[in-house]
Every structure is written in C-alpha cells, then in structure tokens.
Amino acid sequence: MSAIESVGTYVPRYRISAETIGEAWNGFEARGVHEKRVAAGDEDAVTMAVEAAKDALAASTYGREEIETLALGTTTPPVEEGDVGVQVAEIMGLERSTEVVVHSQSTRAGTRALVGALRADSPGLVVAADSPLGEPDDAVDHAAGAGAVALVVGDDGANVVETATYTQEYPGTRFRQRGSETTETYDATAYERDAYTTVIGGAVGKLTESPDAIAPTAPDGSMPNRAAGVADGATVYHYADELGDTGAASPLFGLVSAWEDDASSVTVVGFGDGAGADAVTIDGSLPVEIDRAPTDISYTEYLRKRGHILSNGGDA
Amino acid sequence: MAAYISVPTWWQNLDSRYRLVIGECSECGATKFPPEGACIDCAAPGSALEPVEPAGTGEIVAHTVIEGGEPPEFSNLIDTEGAIGAVLVELDEGARVPGMLTDCDPHEFGRGDRVEATVRRVYEQEGVVRYGAKFRPTDD
C-alpha cells in the first residue's frame, strides 16, 4: 500500500492546564505544554484506539470487512502480556482473517505500525494510542497527555513517497521497568537531547529529499523544536502544547496539526527511546480536525482519574 | 452485593457487549436485547431473531445514580469518576438496553436525553479487563 486514505482522531474529554498542575507542585515541569487531555478512569489505550479507528473507518472508502491488517502501536498496553490488538479488532468487529500486530516498547511504536501496514499488500488500519503515566511530581507525569490517531492505508489518498529508519543505542533515556506503571527518565538532559537529535537526524538524513515540514515524536512541547536543527530547518508540527505527551500517537498528531495548517508535504518522524527513529514522508493532505469540546478538571480530579489516589491505595 | 460473571460466560456475548448486537424478529420486525429467547412482541421463537448491529444511538428512558454501596468490582470507577450513572436506553432501532453513562456528570442527564454508545472499561476482575459499551451524551 502506498497512500493514507483516511484519518481519524480521538482525544479524551477531560482537560487540565499547566497552571493548575503548577499550582499543586509550585512549578510545572513539562516545557511547552500549556494544557493537556486526561483519560477518564474507564479509558485506556484499547478504548482510545477503538474510538480513533471508528473515526478513520467512517471517513474511509473501505468498509471494515475490507480491512486485512490491523497494526496497533502503544507504549501503554493495559496488560503486559495478552494481545490487546485482538481486543481492538474484536470490539471493531473486524474479520477473523485480519492480520493483527501490536507494536510497543517505545514511542516509535506508532510509526512502526504505519510502516508495517504500508508494507502489506492490502488495505490496513493503523492505530496509535497512548496514555503515559509518571510519578506525580516529575516532568513525565506533568507532560503526560492522552489520545489516539488512526489511519487507513490503501492505494489512493495522501501518498507515502519515502521512508527511512535509523537505530543507535542510547540506554535509559526514557523507560518503564518491568512491573511498573510509571515511565521514568534518567534525567541527563544533554544526553537525552543528543539521543533525540542524533537518531532523528539519522533517519531524516537518509531521505533523498529534505523535508519541508516535520512531525516528530513530542515528549513535551519544546523537544520537537530541536528536531528542526537536524532537518534543514523544516517547519515543526506537534500537538503536545494542547494535548500533552501522547507517546506513540504524538508524531501522528503532529501530522494532523500539519494537515490542519494545510501543509502539503510532511515527514512524520517517530522517535523511540532506546533509540530508533522512522521517517515517513507523505505528500498531499486529508481533511481532519480535532473538535472535541473539553471539560476542565481540578488537580484532585486529575489524581483520581489517573489512579494516583484510590481507596485501595492508588497508583493501581 | 456483586453479580459475578465468569470470563467464559462474559465471552459468550462479546458482540452484544461491544457493539450492542440486537435481535430483529423476522416475523414482525420488533427488536430485542439481548438477541435471544422469544420475540417480545409477537412471541415468535428465538430462532426467528436475526442479529443486527445497531447505530448505537438512542434515548435514556430510565436513570439512576450510584454514589456508594457499589459492587466491589466498580469501586475503582467510583473513586476515579465520583458516581456511576446506570441507565436503560431505548436504541433508535427500538430495543431497550441497560448500560452505564460515561464522560459526563450522571446527575446532569436523565430521561429523554440523547446518548451514543462507546466502548469503555467496565471493570477489572481477577486480573482480566472487561470492556463493554457504555453511553455518553450526544447532541446528535
């Protein structure tokens, strides 16, 4: 498959501002995030993936019975073992012959899912959904947002003209230990920035055409701007300023932001700590907008919805 | 009091839990949820019911709010969301479906309000997450 045929998005209803979190902690640690979306207590990567996937299928010329591949990318699967992709397929009512694959382990999972689906010779549904969790006092949690983007890939639409990938080990920049609910960082700022720019630059540098615009993985609203320096000064798009860190979905939300701005050639760059990056250049654009009306919540509501405080002890 | 449902029993009705699949009577056209047993209108036997996937939109016809004393599998949801709206929804196709409200303050919605289905975590029990359709308010 060579094109993105339709796009769908989902963001949770609940919203909290950086100011509200900053008041609770005498400071807000996530640079460039002004507000973010918060998943309700009954939402997770599976439910958000289903919402975005339904939205993308509704905009597609393909019916769900024609989808032959489902590729799901998330760093926050609700279980550590067990096929959450199959759950998405079952909830959607996809055919039993659908090839289901889940990409995880790093925030590159969203573009991994996209590249995988593009390689299949059949219509596919790509979904990236994430809702990261950190310790309440750190930058990971302050940045952590929630949302999902789904793409239907087929023969026509916005054309994927080129892909490139790059891998180089940078241990420990961002990770989640086995058995842990919370993502952490090593907190060596210069090292983390070096990993991000070197690996993104490596992938972008392998493209034959320099990008006009890039939509890189956005762990906050500031880091993406560093990608411009290794992408010939390309215009940078992300949604982290409004949605927070959407993990594996963040480069695809960047694509949505670029399309909302009528950008006609965008290189999506999925970066995953560890580290690896995929660069996917897409020509043309599709109609899309994020229009879900928000409801603002207090910091205590935030703590409850995120499971930081529960009557059984919290951080469940 | 908890209404315990084992995973194998839960699994038997995934189509109805996820996509509210209803039964349409091939004799008289009436719809029924769940899609089993005799037709509620003409009493045709259950074999006359054809599975139909509804749009998922409808109207609340009965409503109550649970703020405490909930079954234990719902205690985390009470903690995270504060209260649970329990509703009976008449789907646009006619069948009446029990469910829970989501994405709203359940005190602010009730009989006559329009809702649409969305799949959410219903609860987690014995380590297994149970997903199912809930209802959220809609202007459509």
Topology:
The complex is a heterodimer of chains A (316) and B (140).
Chain A: E1 3-10, E2 14-17, H1 18-25, E3 35-38, H2 45-58, E4 69-73, H3 84-92, E5 99-103, H4 109-119, E6 124-130, H5 139-143, E7 147-154, E8 158-167, E9 174-175, E10 184-185, H6 189-205, E11 213-216, H7 223-228, E12 235-236, H8 240-243, H9 250-260, E13 265-272, E14 276-283, E15 295-296, H10 299-305
Parallel strand pairs in A: 2-15, 4-5, 4-6, 11-12, 11-13
Antiparallel strand pairs in A: 1-7, 1-8, 2-3, 6-7, 8-14, 9-10, 13-14
Chain B: H1 7-11, H2 14-19, E1 22-25, E2 31-32, E3 49-52, E4 57-66, H3 75-81, E5 84-91, E6 96-100, E7 114-125, E8 128-137
Antiparallel strand pairs in B: 1-2, 1-3, 4-5, 4-7, 5-6, 7-8
Describe this structure as you would to a colleague:
The complex is a heterodimer of chains A (316) and B (140). With 316 residues, chain A is an alpha/beta fold. Chain A folds into two domains: 3-158, Thiolase/Chalcone synthase (Peroxisomal Thiolase, Chain A, domain 1); 160-283, Peroxisomal Thiolase, Chain A, domain 1 (3-Layer(aba) Sandwich), CATH 3.40.47.10. Helix content of chain A is 29%, strand content 25%. Chain A is built from ten helices and 15 strands. Chain A has helices at 18-25, 45-58, 84-92, 109-119, 139-143, 189-205, 223-228, 240-243, 250-260, 299-305; strands at residues 3-10, 14-17, 35-38, 69-73, 99-103, 124-130, 147-154, 158-167, 174-175, 184-185, 213-216, 235-236, 265-272, 276-283, 295-296. In chain A, the strands form three sheets. Chain A has a ten-stranded mixed sheet with strand order 5-4-6-7-1-8-14-13-11-12, with helices on both faces. Chain A has a three-stranded mixed sheet with strand order 3-2-15. Chain A has a two-stranded antiparallel sheet with strand order 9-10. In chain A, helix 3 links the parallel strand 4 and strand 5. In chain A, helix 2 (45-58) crosses helix 3 (84-92). Chain A starts with a strand and ends in an 11-residue tail after the last helix. The mean pLDDT of chain A is 96. With 140 residues, chain B is mostly beta strands. Chain B has one domain (7-137). Chain B is 13% helix and 39% strand. Chain B is built from three helices and eight strands; from the N terminus they run H-H-E-E-E-E-H-E-E-E-E. Chain B has helices spanning 7-11, 14-19, 75-81, and strands spanning 22-25, 31-32, 49-52, 57-66, 84-91, 96-100, 114-125, 128-137. In chain B, the strands form two sheets. A five-stranded antiparallel sheet of chain B has the order 6-5-4-7-8. In chain B, strands 2-1-3 form a three-stranded antiparallel sheet, with no helix packed on it. The radius of gyration of chain B is 16 Å and the shape is globular. The model of chain B has no long low-confidence stretch (mean pLDDT 93). Chains A and B meet through helix 2 and helix 3 of A and helix 2, helix 3, strand 7 and strand 8 of B.
